[in-house]
Amino acid sequence: MIWGSPGWLWGLAPWAGVAAWMLLGLRRRVGVPFLALWQAGESPRTIHRRVRPPLVCVVAILVAMGLAILAAGGPGIVGARDGEMATIIVNRGISASASRDGVAGYVVAARKLAATKTVGRARVVAVPATGGEVSARREWLARIEELAPTAMDARDGVAQAVRRALATTQGRVIVVGGGVERVDDPRVFVVPAGALGANVGIAGVSARVDAAGIARVWVAIAGTSDAGAVEVTAGGDGGSASKTLTLSGRGATAETVLAVANAGELLRIGISPGGSVGADDRAWLARRGSWPKVTLGHDAPAAVRRMVGVYGNHRPTDGGSPTVTVVDAADAAKVGGPVVVIVATSLGGAAGGAVGTVDHPVTADVEWAKVMADAVVAPAGPPAGFKAVMTVGGKPAVAVREAGADESRGVWIGFDSPTFSREPGFVSFWVNALDWVGGNAGEYRADTVHQLPAESRRIEPGGDSSDEPGLTAGLWRWADGSRGALNAPVADTVPDADGGDWKTRVAGVAEGDRGVISLSSWLALLASGCLLLAAATWTSRIAVYLTGAPRGHRYRK
User: Fold this and answer.
1) CA–CA distance, 97 with 91 (Å, rounded to integer)
2) DSSP structural state of residue 336
3) DSSP code for 147
């Protein structure tokens, strides 16, 4: 109980005196002679003090006066107010979700906070969000313990949640699990999840199938401390490969390319020994779609015909494969789908000059300066809609067309070289061109962990319907039935810098979440009710009561 204007309480002293005077009163006692004819002198008057049963109206007036004095003193009780409840932001990111002795880090942090007994009712905001992302309850610890860990990088989401809470609430903003830089605001507190051991994880993966059907798997690893030797393994349906890398020092990275034969539809990548966070020790790459089916629309050069045959042998097709047609310039307009246009240069053309290239999938992995040393370039440039990605002496030699509303992808080849077909770059160029025109449908792909539609299900490793769609790493089946891989980022195991004073600070402003509920209006309302009661029970006997006149005495008006 607190008082806003305690000086008014001194008014209770005269009120108590008035109440005592009215209840005790000074009464006259009138004696009656025992014998009517006994002549006796008048005995002296004796005044006796005694409490007489009060009238209802008198009691009501006294109570109304007392309540009015109390109301003027501004009484209030301390309690939680919804507008100033604490907001607890739970970081469910990969680092805060990592286990500390079998318990998720954000749960460890929440239990630390609960042990301080400084938070009553609170709003719980989970990042990433769940179906019931915000709740206001005293059982906030139980709510946090129910949340499932994730493998998502939640740092940006936590920072946004902090800014939103500061803008929309007046109470404390407590980040459970860390993952946010210390904010220069006295209402923000960061409760770290605690330190983890040394960690090393897979920082990136990609794969590309060469003309021989070998999957070239690029793997990068990173560590948060000196991890030493780490074995990297990549495997598919029919083969695997491994290599040992060395990491030294925090933030160190290393990478390698592994050759996996007969990789099939799925590549699995892993490291050993793993770090203190298991979610970033494994990665997946899944092939999406089908390789294109290549047809020849004209009498192409012999080297091109051989290349198309090799491409088909190493890029198996199925019923969903798109069709790519290789034609000459004269027939290009007749083809409605993806096309590779070969321009005849036998009629002559410009040769020589500086070679310029644009960073594009079609021009990758080819030594163009060597190839174009003896090349002939078509005198006429590409048709409208094509953009040059390789030039010789300023003249377009290779151009591409992006898919649009009315057109499909296309590659225009406007040069010829008598030695190009004998160079390794010849195979790389044609594989690049056919893959790109076909929409890269047979590439291995993976995304980082992110939320998916509710119909998605994890099929590896051992997922079930309780998994929040997309928030854990693995192989997932999309709503349309296709498969896709989601990989986790490398977890940072460095504890958040909280200055070691979060307990002191959060306790020091604990009253910031507790408001004063005023009782003055309620007391004033009760006083008014007592006055109404006094008016309703008012009687003419009040004068007799106040003066102490004998019972039965009536005053004349």
Assistant:
1) 8
2) -
3) S
Number of H helices and E strands in the chain, helices first, is 12, 33
Question: pLDDT tens digits, residue range 23-49?
Answer: 665 445 445 555 554 555 555 555 555
CA 247 to CA 492: how far, in whole Å? 15
Question: Buried b / exposed e across 481-517, counting CB within 10 Å, b at 16+?
Answer: eebbbbbbbbbbbeebebeeebbeebeeebeebebee
Taking the CA atoms of 454, 456, 457 and 461 in sequence, report the sign of the dihedral they define: negative
Gap between the Cα atoms of 54 and 430, Å rounded: 111
Coil vs helix vs strand at 260:
strand
- Is residue 83 classed as helix, strand or coil in its secondary structure? helix
Looking at the DSSP bridge assignments, the partners of residue 6 are none
Burial 356-374, CB ≥16 within 10 A → b, else e: ebeeeebbeebebeebbee
- Residues for the chain: how many in total? 557
Place of tokens 């605690």: 194
User: With contact defined as beta carbons under 8 Å apart, do 530 and 63 qualify?
Assistant: yes
Q: Is the pLDDT of residue 130 over 80?
A: no
Angle formed at CA 378 by CA 376 and CA 383, multiple of 5 degrees: 150
Cis peptide before 461 (omega within 30 of 0): yes
Tell if the pTM clears 0.70, that is, is over it: no
